[in-house]
Structures
1.
Amino acid sequence: MTYKIAITRQIPEIGIEYLASKGYDINIWPSTLPPGPEELVSFVEDADGIISMLSDQFSKDILKKLPKLKIISNFAVGHNNINLLTCTRNSVKVTNTPDVLTEATAELTLTLLLSVARKMITATKNVENGEWKSWNPTGFIGTGLKRKTLGIIGPGRIAFEFAKKCHLAFEMPIIYYGRRPKSSFEEHLNAKQMSLKQLLAESDIVSIHCPLTSETKNLIGATELNSMKDGSILINTARGEVINQNDLELSLKKTQLFGIGLDVTAPEPIRHDSPLLKYENIVITPHIGSANKEARNAMSLLCAENIDAYFQGTPLLTEVTIS
Ligand code: DGY
């Protein structure tokens, strides 16, 4: 039997070649823009398996229209775009791409932090705009990172790699907020667990890494933003909805923060009229955490291997289950 696999965007060839070599019938979404909800249904309704993107929403209503579907292999570690409960009830397996993108996303988090701390975007724009007239002893004054306190929200794998870099390179003390104590953080980074309130009050840098769930949606709102330290930096490379973006936008006029780095926004892409785009020391990247060649190739292959494992009847490599 030939299984039909729908891939909702062009992904690195390695995963496609892997599936092709095993004889799957592959259909790749032809556009560089993602399918809308109706287009998504008509594109995947005939598929036995899907390689999906984090921008494809597999809601209860959409899943209801896909009775043939056996497996969704999500090209991301986050899987908040998939209704896991409905998948479980309908016996649709779900997999994701943990580990292979950890280093890339940790590196991007560090890039955002350094860019904000040294006003990198305003500085490069100044040169590009022909405004570099002389050396300026008071221009583009950043903030140092050495021994600053790093507060991690969501102490998972990506957070660990990012915190390790900050701890080793900048001697940062690490504190964290999470559901339970994390021995990796405590043993290797001498990190201390604390309440969110305490963490926000003590951190010079707050970096968000938790998954988006009903508990973490809008976790950082007006109260939390107000309780951050003067001159601190907020970084989010997890999901935009963890921050109440409306509250963040309203806080900007009188913010005490030194700067903000966001790889994720709500919605994505960010609205063109968002005030976040007007503030000098906010660096926003278009959700590129996993975007290096090593990670994207490994994600492509892992997605394909999960699909093949399912149809071969062997254990899935990285199954997502309800915790
Ligand atoms: C993912 O894969 O979920 C992350 O957003 C990577 O940036």
2.
Amino acid sequence: MRIIVTKDYEDMSKKAAAIIAAQVVSKPDCVLGLATGSTPIGTYKNLVKWYEEGTLDFSAVKTVNLDEYRGLPRDNDQSYYYFMHDHLFNHVNIDVANTNVPDGTNPDAEQEAERYEALIASYGGQDLQLLGIGHNGHIGFNEPSDSFDKITHCVDLQESTIEANKRFFATIDDVPKQAYTMGIGTIMKAKKILILANGEGKADIVAKAFFGPVTPQVPASILQFHPDVTVVVDEAAAAKLPR
Ligand code: PGA
């Protein structure tokens, strides 16, 4: 595991984007596993900038996103489909047919999870998977639990997550109660993993995930067993790492 400590969020975003850019340059038809959340927004901004400057070409890149709410249509501005188009896909020359997010509107959850897992396998898996980390150590929607979920599945969101999300919706009834997520096994099959964290609020979980015991109670801790992980954290999120 390589740990890169950066000055601040801007610096983290630039270095993370540089790692993704290197992947795209060295394998123009690579499969990128992508993530949503506040953490990667700056990374996507840099990728868009380098595309605009002519440094990056996404025309042959394929993408698979980590997760999506169940029940939200694509045009809902809280869907992860919407987020990805808003922050990246609409601004680079990627072929939208090569971008993939679980379909939140499929009424058959089991079929959707199976379809998504098979799709990733048909691509030969992710060359590089980008991840954020939740305050509780979750990656994707793989929340702390008694075992590691292997493949793409539908999860019931925790009450605290529903409560935290309600500010984004008109009423509590509009807040999704379930989500699709790649499993821990789906994530671990990626050839390379790039995980980002910033801000002092993430300092405890970053230390726990990468220097604590490997346990499904801290889902990101499994990454200690992956052969090619790069952790890019700003100084604030690195504050509790052993020196
Ligand atoms: P954040 O979310 O980037 O909004 O902090 C990270 C995550 O929950 O994976």
3.
Amino acid sequence: METHTGIESPKGVWWKRAHPTERMWVVIAFGWCMVLFAMMPLWHFKGGQNPAGVRYRVKPADYMRRTQEFIAAYKVGIDQGIPIVEPPPGSDIYLIGLSFAWQPILKLRQGTEYTLHLSSLDVNHGFSLYPMNINFQVVPGYDYGLRVTPTEAGDLRIVCNEFCGIGHHTMVGRVIVTDSAGREVAAAERAALTREATP
Ligand code: CUA
């Protein structure tokens, strides 16, 4: 009976040199890995891929209290039970992700910078601003302060893109961006249509 140990190689063909095309493939794959590896810091510094912002640890109860104070200070209306809040230009604004809603509805002004705070009170949610290409994880226990400047007026939707439970697909919020004069675009469009329709 033949035996072999760790010192003696087993007989067979496994030790054959790799075929030139296979070696070529390994070299190309390694080169590509290095390119992708270099892209990570490159995106960070050059690509505008990383948000400019700060992140703090926060207790969900404290974040809720701060957001409630914010809502109480700047509330201008209500839409289907969700308060509409119009904060002063340049201020800190707060948004809560909570199964399965976004609170409050933010009414912002075009061309004005705000610091948008995002946090969750329960599980991870995903903040996607439709139809913009923006996507953030909203994590309980962390307050993500993001400097944002709305560039276009409109009536936008926040879509949750992180599966958070049975009502995930219903978790839709709203952001209203008024034009630089503080007018709601949808309302202005409606007024223009009415004017056209009226002889
Ligand atoms: Cu919140 Cu999905």
